[in-house]
Amino acid sequence: MDENYDGNLVDLLELFSPAHPLAVGTEIDNKKLDGYLERFFNHPELCNEDCNTCGYCSKYALESIGQIGCNFLKTLNYLHKKLAKEFYQKLDE
Q1: Cβ(36)–Cβ(45) under 8 Å?
Q2: Smallest Cα–Cα separation from 88: which of 21, 78, 80?
Q3: Within 10 A of 1 (CB to CB), how many other CB atoms are there?
Q4: 73 and 26 in contact (C-beta within 8 Å)?
Q5: pTM
Q6: Which of 37, 13, 33, 34 is nearest to 23 (CA)?
Q7: Residue 65's CB: how many other CB atoms inside 10 A?
Q8: Would you state the pLDDT for residue 92?
Q9: Which residues contact 37 (CB under 8 A, 6 or more apart)?
Q10: Residue 14 pairs with which residues in a beta bridge?
Q11: What is the SS3 assignment for 86?
Q12: 64 burial via Cβ count (<10 Å: 0-12, 13-18, 19+)
């Protein structure tokens, strides 16, 4: 936990996945996430899961992956939700 890494966080995350599912062209600037987790460890009650109002995670995402990366992830999230909804609708039929 006391180690230090300058680089793309995706490279570290992919070490644990032989399929490399994160290799989608997004780079996460590891250093710009410094301090991000402290809020959750020190004050877990502050997260009320109202992301549209809070903006804490969005701020760090914007700083670490930029606007293009955020837009890309929003698109992936939208597609995931749409596909999941269609999948469960077909199961119900």
Answers
A1: no
A2: 80
A3: 2
A4: yes
A5: 0.57
A6: 13
A7: 21
A8: 78
A9: none
A10: none
A11: helix
A12: buried
User: What pLDDT is stored for residue 66 in this prediction?
Assistant: 86
The whole-angstrom separation of Cα 16 and Cα 85 is 29
Cβ–Cβ under 8 Å, residues 33 and 4: no
What is the mean pLDDT for each group of 10 consecutive residues in the chain (93 residues)?
Answer: 71 64 67 86 85 86 85 82 83 77
Q: What is the spatial distance between Cα 2 and Cα 65, in angstroms, rounded to a whole number?
A: 23
Neighbours of 28 (CB within 10 A): 19
Res 49: pLDDT: 82
Cα distance between residue 50 and residue 23, in whole Å: 29
25 CB-near residues (< 8 Å, 6+ apart): 72
- Residue 2 has a CB neighbour count (10 Å cut-off) of 3
| pLDDT of 19 | 60
pLDDT of 18: 58
Write the burial class of residue 61 (CB in 10 Å: 0-12 exposed, 13-18 middle, 19+ buried). Answer: buried
